[in-house]
Amino acid sequence: MADAIGKPDFHRAISDPYYFSGRKSLISEIQQESNKVWILLGGSRIGKTSLLNALEWNFLAADSQPSGRVLPVLIDLNQVQPETLAHLRYLIVARLRKSISRWQQVPNFSFQTPIRELYQSYLKNVSDTQVTINFLKQVGLKLELRNPHENRRLSDEVFSESLLQSLGELRDLGFSNICCLFDNAEFIAKQDWATDAWNYFRSFQESKDNHVSSYVGLVFSGYRELKDYQQKVGSPLLNISNIRWLAPLSESDVRNIISLREECAPLQLNEEDILSIIEWTGCHPCLIHSMLDALLAVSRTENTDYLTLVIEGLLDQQSDVFSSWWNEKDALGRLENEDRLIYKAMMSCREGGPKHIAKLSKKGAGKVKKTLQILCATGLILEVGDGTYKIGSRLFEEWVVQNYKEEESTS
Question: What is the pLDDT of residues 264-280, one digit of tens each?
Answer without folding.
Answer: 877 788 899 899 999 99
